[in-house]
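Researcher: Quick test of sequence recovery. Tokens follow.
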């Protein structure tokens, strides 16, 4: 990694345009990745509201057409948005400029610590803590995966891989600690009734959209 940084310093002196291109690509990738984290955190919040409603609603209740305040519908919309972000991430991979900065970024993304978080995740812990996220508290929320999936490992073997992220406006623990919920403006606007239910679940106040 130190060798890659040395190459980047040399390239910055002699080919600054290439370094700017690599930095721009990394910025776009990180923005898309952060949006994915926000969507997964929203889905997790909505799942809690959906389960709570199902527990309270008797089985004999008449079925209703899902509306904007229905958590199941909003989960589907968030999942569709997340799928689009995954495709955008794949497109960015094909468009990645070569160079020492993107090589270092790949190293951080593809190497994991003993707890299976990526080294990129490790690098972002301080920023999360400074912004008031869970890395600055003892809850350890960021150390738990937002979602898990199976990754082929050769032959018929598959291993469980976790998606680890950091806090956004959709993190329920942050809502509780901040005392308010202002939905992430990058995501589809929530019906105020549903947003208020999320805020109530996390014992905070809904303060509206940006």
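Model:
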């Amino acid at each position: 990694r130190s060798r890659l940084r040395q190459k980047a310093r040399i390239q910055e002196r002699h080919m600054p345009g290439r370094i700017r291109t690599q930095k721009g690509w990394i910025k776009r990738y990180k923005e898309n990745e952060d949006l994915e984290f926000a969507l997964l955190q929203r889905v997790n919040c909505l799942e809690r509201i959906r389960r709570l409603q199902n527990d309270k609603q008797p089985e004999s209740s008449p079925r209703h057409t899902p509306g904007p305040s229905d958590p199941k519908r909003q989960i589907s919309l968030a999942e569709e948005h997340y799928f689009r972000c995954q495709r955008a991430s794949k497109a960015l991979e094909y468009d990645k400029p070569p160079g020492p900065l993107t090589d270092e970024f790949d190293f951080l993304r593809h190497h994991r610590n003993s707890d299976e978080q990526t080294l990129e995740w490790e690098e972002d812990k301080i920023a999360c803590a400074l912004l008031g996220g869970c890395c600055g508290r003892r809850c350890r929320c960021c150390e738990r995966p937002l979602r898990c999936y199976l990754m082929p490992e050769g032959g018929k073997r598959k291993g469980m891989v976790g998606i680890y992220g950091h806090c956004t406006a959709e993190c329920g623990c942050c809502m509780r600690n901040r005392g308010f919920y202002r939905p992430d403006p990058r995501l589809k606007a929530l019906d105020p009734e549903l947003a208020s239910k999320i805020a109530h679940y996390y014992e905070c106040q809904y303060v509206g959209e940006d």
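The helical segments are 2-14, 16-56, 71-94, 100-110, 119-123, 125-130, 172-178, 192-201.
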